[in-house]
Amino acid sequence: MRLYWRIVFPFALGLVALVGAGTLMATWVLARDADRRLEEHLGAAAERIAHGGFAFTPALLAQLKVAVAADVVVVGPGGTVITSTLDERVAEEAAALAGRSASGTPRLAAARVGASGYRVLSIAMPAEAAPVQALAFFAPLAPLDAARGRLVSTLVLMALAGLLLMLAWGHFVTRSITRPLDRLVESTRIVAGGDLAHTTARPRIPELAALAEAFDQMIAKIAASEARLVRSERLAAMGQIAATVAHEVRNPLTAMRMLAQLLGRHHADRTVPGEACTKIIGEIDRLELLVQGLLAATHDRPMRRAPVDLSRLVQEISALVGEQFRHRGIVVTEDLAAPARVDADPDRLKQLVLNLLLNAADAMPSGGTITIVTRRADGGDGSARIELTITDEGTGLSPLAQARAFEPFFTTKPEGAGLGLALCGRTAEEHGGGMRLQNRPDGGAVATVWLPLGPAGAGARLEPAPLEEAIV
Known about the structure:
By secondary structure, the chain is of the alpha+beta class. The chain is built from ten helices and 13 strands.
């Protein structure tokens, strides 16, 4: 049975039972109240007549019948009829009944006289009223039952209207619960079909909205894990290729470099052969660096962790490249937390910071300002972390660069190998952190690296990014 009917069916049954019981109870209470008011009305009239010393003439009885909306029977000795507004065929039976039930305190009772039903109230007359012994009022049930029927019909109609409204309200409430759940089920089917970029619509009900948000977070983590797995498989395949290429290429490159050096010794530097040898050696060295970078990007090296003050490391690297940057018209400003300690491999961390600084400088061929900030931040799960941000004033990242920034061998530089950011992202992951690239609203780009305080986690920690960001 669907969840909708599991909620609506018991709700409807309970509501019908509740409304039915309420209607029956209301009918019974109203009937009791009508009998009480009739008893009070007839009793008050009987008391006044009994002690008023009236002569029971046909004219008086006719007036009483109209006044109390009931037939009047005056009973004599032995239950005989003295006078009555009832038909003569039933007057004797009514008088006998009234004589038996008369008392000093009038009480309303139900009785049948002839073929008709009545509400009967009898009162014993005082001795000075002899020969009259009792006075009785017979209120016919037909008008009372008709009025009661109209009242019950009204109550039933009101109950049915209330029932329909409650059922409509129950349907609305149930659908407000089941519709978001149906959408969530549909989202799971879409995600199961391979669309990990799908997001679930947020319901208005806070609990269901939290469920949808948790589902989207789970999908984001799955997507990040899948991306890491694909990247790892790609690197593993590239590692095998890189080892083969390095072995097959390095030996010829070494021989070519030695021959170029020998030829260069026999020719002056400014001659055409001498300059050609110098260029050959430079290109061979560039190929050697490319091979080394390929091996570094595709092979794991053991990490040598140690406590590192990231702020101090940034100062050392900034001083190292400071002279070169000044010649290029680049100013480096720093806002560093003291201390900013992380548990990391110092060599790998130095390479990461150096690569990011060089990338920032390359993004500003006409010069500009590079801003470096280190700060302590909340990791989002109660843990603390150190964040390093490097901001440049270049042209920013193109959509293609944002999408592929951390892929090995992707580069936008004419002479780049496309391994720098891939190594930076991998280094951040291996330290239990992550890396993010963003465009600044007023131009330029921001590279953010976060690393955990204290011992790093075993796995990478990735954060979901908006479309305008590239994250590893």
